Inverse folding.
């Protein structure tokens, strides 16, 4: 019976994907995340002291979140139960917490409940975890690819340590790939495949920090090639599926890419701006969102240094609506490069912010009598409009007239582009009216 059981176990192991077979069996085999798992780092200290608290593992796929949870259970001696937030509800969750409470009552080491994709639990489901987490009945480890500060209840976050997983480096991936290629028990060692330096570097780079992706490509390449073959760059490239870009239209990837795009344009780097634009287009970003953000930038960061920028943004928005993808990528490319190379000024942005702050916090100014509306019959009796001077009567379109009642300066043109000329005209107007600018 034992022989048959061993054979059955070996068959199941061999049927597992390479990435599953090569999961590390101890913390010493675990690769990556040394910023919190290295010697002397927080998580390593907690494991050594057997004081594992609840934790949220946050990071991209293939960086070891599930694997590390299993290793922590093995290291601390706590029983581990897993739950997927995608397929489980409150009923399954309560059953798991009942099991954990029973484990604690019989004196076992604090059990670990691992909830994969914890951000998929709704508020009620997350709240159900709170009492047992707070009372120390369980050590909760929640794994998520979404920013936990947006996706996980604040009460649960405050009771958990947050560990952010980073993509594995090319060096770390190369180490994993070499181990898998040579391991005769769990890896591909029995096939005696070879991987030259160029191919190893190619795959470590192409996997973009995802260990699972790197091992899957290696397995496909090895199994589709004769034993003892050399795995070349061409073979690995052919074994790799079209790149899937991890991108949530309402999550971190969306907002981070948008932030990088806007900051690249603001910094006048068209090449960086084009990369982030391409990244968002490849991920299926909403074209209207891109047009809105670029239109805002045209006023916020360029303004009157180049008034044509806003015209370009409006025209691009209309054009994108009219022609759609894929052709409108050309329009967006034209707009992004124009905005990136345009003269920059945030003078209009700071001006309206200062004026609104003055309105909110300062004394409200009455409209001067000579500027008040006088189109109705009784206005003249009230003296509205008395003393108003029509600006076009001035030789240069400027007349000596107060339009506010007090001295205020909100708009301070930059010395760039069209705004530099506008600033000179504004200075001449102030000189003529003998109203020196103030600090508002």
């Amino acid at each position: 019976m034992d022989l048959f059981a061993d054979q059955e176990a070996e068959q199941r192991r061999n049927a597992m994907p390479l990435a599953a077979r090569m999961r590390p069996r101890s913390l010493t085999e675990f690769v990556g995340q040394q910023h919190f798992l290295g010697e002397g780092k927080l998580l390593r200290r907690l494991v050594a002291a057997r004081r594992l608290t609840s934790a949220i593992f946050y990071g991209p796929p293939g960086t070891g979140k599930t694997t590390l949870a299993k290793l922590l259970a093995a290291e601390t001696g706590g029983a581990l139960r897993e739950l997927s937030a995608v397929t489980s509800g409150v009923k399954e969750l309560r059953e798991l917490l009942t099991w954990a409470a029973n484990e604690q009552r019989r004196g076992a080491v604090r059990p670990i409940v691992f909830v994969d994709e914890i951000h998929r639990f709704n508020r009620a489901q997350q709240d159900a975890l709170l009492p047992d987490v707070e009372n120390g009945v369980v050590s909760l480890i929640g794994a998520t690819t979404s920013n936990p500060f947006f996706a996980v209840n604040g009460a649960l976050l405050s009771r958990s340590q947050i560990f952010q997983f980073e993509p594995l480096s090319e060096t770390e991936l190369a180490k994993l790939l070499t181990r898998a290629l040579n391991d005769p028990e769990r890896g591909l060692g029995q096939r005696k495949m070879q991987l030259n330096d160029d191919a190893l570097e190619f795959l470590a780079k192409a996997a973009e920090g995802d260990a699972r992706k790197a091992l899957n490509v290696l397995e496909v390449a090895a199994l589709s090639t004769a034993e003892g073959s050399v795995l070349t760059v061409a073979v690995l490239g052919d074994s790799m599926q079209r790149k899937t870009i991890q991108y949530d239209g309402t999550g971190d990837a969306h907002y981070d890419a948008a932030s990088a795009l806007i900051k690249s344009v603001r910094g006048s780097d068209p090449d960086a701006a084009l990369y982030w634009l391409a990244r968002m287009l490849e991920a299926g970003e909403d074209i209207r969102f891109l047009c809105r953000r670029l239109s805002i930038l045209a006023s916020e960061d360029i303004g009157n240094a180049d008034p044509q920028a806003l015209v370009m943004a409006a025209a691009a928005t209309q054009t994108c609506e009219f022609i759609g993808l894929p052709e409108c990528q050309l329009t967006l490319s034209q707009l992004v490069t124009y905005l990136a190379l345009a003269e920059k000024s945030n003078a209009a942005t700071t001006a309206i912010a200062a004026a609104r702050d003055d309105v909110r916090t300062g004394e409200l100014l009455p409209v001067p009598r000579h500027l008040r509306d006088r189109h109705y019959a009784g206005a003249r009796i009230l003296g509205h409009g008395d003393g108003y001077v029509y600006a076009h009567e001035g030789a240069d379109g400027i007349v000596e007239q107060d339009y506010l009642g007090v001295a205020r300066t909100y708009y301070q043109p930059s010395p760039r582009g069209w705004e530099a000329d506008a600033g000179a005209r504004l200075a001449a107007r102030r000189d003529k009216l003998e109203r020196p600018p103030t600090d508002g």
